[in-house]
Automatic annotation (TrEMBL):
UniProt KW keywords: Nucleotidyltransferase, Transferase
EC assignment: 2.7.7.87
Residues passing through the membrane, by range: none
Record-linked PANTHER family: DHBP SYNTHASE RIBB-LIKE ALPHA/BETA DOMAIN-CONTAINING PROTEIN (PTHR42828), THREONYLCARBAMOYL-AMP SYNTHASE (PTHR42828:SF3)
Domain of life: Bacteria
Protein name: L-threonylcarbamoyladenylate synthase
Organism: Streptomyces lavenduligriseus
GO molecular function: L-threonylcarbamoyladenylate synthase
InterPro entries: DHBP_synth_RibB-like_a/b_dom, Sua5-like_dom, SUA5_domain
Length: 206
């Protein structure tokens, strides 16, 4: 049965955030809010967490997982960013964008796209997520909480608790956070390629 955390959206309770971070460090799989929609998240090196996310969403090994990063400095540890891409990404973060970029050796091999050796990264503009990332001290391995055969992600913490009570270990509820996933921009080829249009304005990359 998943533990339920009711977290204030503007002033997250430090005790709750610390408990959630401790759970992630102990291999927990969590459902948590972001600035676009809810996501599933686990510790960066958690093979079990990644396998559980794949099972919940029925994903194949070509799926790009996302590293949810606290800031640009942390993002730069896990992906290679040249000068032109640096300016474009920097100008769009924090925000509702996911960027696909060549991974550094800091990224576990199992997370990489098998052919491209890339990974998705993003910096969220969400108070609760930022508080959790600050407490955790490392990125969250994440994927949009979009269930198979459903058109839109789940948006309510209580509904996620009801639907995924035995599939996740904790649900973080800080109110509704929308239904539109991030805009995904692939920079792995050097030029911006919009892979998915979503909550972030895609016009700046066209």
């Amino acid at each position: 049965m998943a533990k339920y955390f009711d977290v204030h959206p503007d002033n997250p309770q430090p005790r709750s955030i610390a408990q959630i971070a401790d759970a992630v460090r102990s291999e927990a799989l969590i459902a948590y809010p972001t600035d676009s929609c809810y996501a599933l998240g686990c510790r960066l090196g958690s093979r079990d967490g990644m396998d559980r996310i794949r099972a919940i969403r029925r994903l194949d090994d070509r799926h790009h997982f996302t590293l949810m990063c606290r800031d640009f400095a942390q993002l730069g540890q896990f992906v290679r960013v040249d000068n032109d891409v640096f300016r474009a990404v920097k100008a769009s973060t924090p925000g509702s964008y996911t960027f696909i970029l060549p991974a550094t050796r800091e990224v576990p091999r199992k997370l990489l796209h098998p052919r491209k050796k890339t990974v998705g990264v993003r910096i969220p503009d969400h108070v609760v997520t930022q508080a959790l990332l600050a407490e955790l001290g490392e990125p969250l391995l994440s994927s949009t909480l979009l269930l198979p055969d459903e058109a839109e992600p789940l948006t309510q913490g209580w509904e996620i608790k009801d639907r995924l009570d035995h599939a996740v270990d904790a649900v973080v509820d800080s109110g509704e956070c929308g239904t539109e996933p991030t805009t995904v921009v692939d920079f792995s080829g050097g030029e911006a390629e919009i892979v998915r249009r979503g909550a972030g304005d895609p016009s700046r990359f066209e």
